[in-house]
């Protein structure tokens, strides 16, 4: 998850079904997804007709990110632009920007797009070939139904999606420095959390609980019995204590939370809900 928000020469064209469902609601784009132990949400996709496995990563600012080895077997064109990013240990990595055509994932089609080479640690170390990030997913209202094995994407203008899919209009969601953030209430105070379907675990920054929980710096895991998200109880919620590079948040809600709930994210209106 880079701190940078720059995207080089972003050119996207989407094919979106205009058909209407029986209740007069827009029919969503559907992307099948799968969960494997210890790995983030994954889908099967193709780029230029070549099969890939990609993480559905709403916590990554990229449109698409692909590993260097994967780019070597795809008909992509490097634009000559590069982008730098850093990790939690202070390492800086430089990735190349590439142009590619015809991404297909479920019923989502991007006829052309600019993506980032995945280098260094993080997602580049995962067994998947790359990721679809917030640069693409954030154009829609997202319904992550991991228990049902599907991501549903609705037009940003579609009405009542959160109420219909998650049972309420939810609560505040902010997009800050390219990541989606909400405040949660616990028995130890308020924490700022990032919504990140691309994280294989729910992680909590150790400094966030220093002084709030006795001997927190000696613990590997922390469980909040009270954990209220947008005013709705969701506890108990367990976190792994770990440093991470996401900016200005205390914790990341990843696969642990997404695997137990249907999560509705509407970045254009600044709302989030779950059931």
Would you summarize the structure shown here?
The protein has helices at 68-71, 134-137, 161-166, 206-209, 255-258, and strands at residues 14-15, 29-32, 42-47, 50-57, 64-67, 77-86, 92-105, 108-118, 130-133, 140-145, 150-155, 171-172, 174-176, 179-186, 189-195, 203-204, 221-224, 227-229, 232-233, 237-241, 251-253, 262-266, 271-274. It is mainly beta and 275 residues long. It comes from Dyella ginsengisoli.
Number of strands: 23
| Principal-axis shape | globular
Please state the second-level CATH architecture of the largest domain. Answer: Beta Barrel
Q: What profile does the largest beta sheet have?
A: 9 strands, mixed
Number of helices: 5
| Sheet/helix structural class | mainly beta
- Radius of gyration, CA atoms, in whole angstroms: 18 Å
Strand content: 35-45%
How is the topology of this model organized?
Blueprint: E1 14-15, E2 29-32, E3 42-47, E4 50-57, E5 64-67, H1 68-71, E6 77-86, E7 92-105, E8 108-118, E9 130-133, H2 134-137, E10 140-145, E11 150-155, H3 161-166, E12 171-172, E13 174-176, E14 179-186, E15 189-195, E16 203-204, H4 206-209, E17 221-224, E18 227-229, E19 232-233, E20 237-241, E21 251-253, H5 255-258, E22 262-266, E23 271-274
Parallel strand pairs: 4-9, 5-8, 15-21, 16-20
Antiparallel strand pairs: 1-8, 2-11, 3-4, 3-7, 5-9, 6-7, 7-8, 10-11, 10-22, 12-23, 13-14, 14-15, 14-18, 16-21, 17-20, 18-19, 22-23
